[in-house]
Amino acid sequence: MNRPIRFLLLLLILASCSKPVKTNFYMPAEWEPHDAVWLGWEEAHLTYHPVVFKMIGALMPHVQVKISANSDSLLRVAKRILSEQSIDTTRIKFYVHPSDRYWIRDHGAAYLVNSKGELGVADFSWNSYGFPYWLQEKFDNNMDSVKKYFNPERTKKLGQVDSLMAVAEHATRLSTWVVHEGGAIEVNGQGTLILCEATVFDRNPGKSKEALEPEFKRVLGVENIIWMKKGLADDPKHFFRRIVDNYVGGGTGGHTDEFVRFANPHTIMLAWVEEREKDLNPINKMNYERMSENLKILEAARDLDGEPFNIVKVPLPDLAARKIVARVNVDDSPTTLDVRLRSFKPSEAPHAGDTLLRVPASSYMNYLVTNGVVLLPTYTATGSSREKEERVRKIFEEQFPGREIIFIDALPLNWSGGGMHCSTQQQPAVGKH
């Protein structure tokens, strides 16, 4: 074979290999069958453990539990601690991935399925919740300070976890340049995705909806995107933020799993502050205004058939603000909620000795639904209305009929800006969608 013909054949082979393969992968809705639910294990945050024990105990009768940790030695610690709680670790599958974070939904795999019964993973890019941009904002673009506090190697390792989870489950990986976290993905399994502008644009500065939407549609297998404006006020971007007045907190900056969730393909649940509660405190007022704007968007939204969605308002728990003190140095005891002055950006920083009101990212919307059960946070122990929580129970019983509703006090997670949904990741059952 002469050289020109050989060269043409090579070009044809390369061209055929470069064509995108039509996979038909999509993300199923969370209420569809699961093969497993994943959790991370983070040694440093022992205050999480009582919540984790209850979650695992509630999940094990219904679904395979999988736990990912940063090393073999840490997994041995996890097995020992779980065994001390009478949890049968032989029924849990353990994995080692380069992750020193508990919140596996955000940096871990977003699992997909296709019509062939194959498993896929949407491999989004990762930048630690826009941390470099937050540091630039905090230090007024002083790049020396940004380099001092930003660890690109750790971020790179965390960004590999979703692809390693794909390898562990022999899943096809659909990678994208879009930076996004799992707690900000909400789908109905029938072509519609809900996103929040506040987080998407923060993680992808300079990118437009026109540039972002095709990638979300490609890797998640959706055709229709509904854009919320802002998330809850008590879920501000990063730690620590002065939210309003003396109220401070930290979080993701607007993850959807804090305030808007599909209950079924045609029903959307929205976190809500009632009219009579909106003036009880500044946080309530901010949430009332934000959710009212989001409600208008949802009321105007349509599904793929052009039909409107049924909107269900889910009450937010009563605000669980706790008085704390701003200090130059804070004891690293896991029980303290006091804050360091240097954790704030200068324009929001309190003075040493100031009394502040720290708020957790508390919401009934940060629930997990899996086979036969819904894990739902409870807030009556911290003073929230029992009557309100009973209304929430009835809403969830109506929206998830036939599933057991299990209330778990997840406040230790809320103080760190997340909840039970943030700290888990469902793995869909292939061939059952």
Automatic annotation (TrEMBL):
Keyword flag DNA-binding: no
GO biological process, one term: putrescine biosynthetic process
Record's keyword annotation contains Hydrolase: yes
InterPro entries tied to this protein: Peptidyl-Arg-deiminase_porph
Gene Ontology MF, one: protein-arginine deiminase activity
Keywords: Hydrolase, Signal
Secretion signal, residue range per the UniProt entry: 1-23
Protein name: Agmatine deiminase
Organism: Chryseolinea serpens
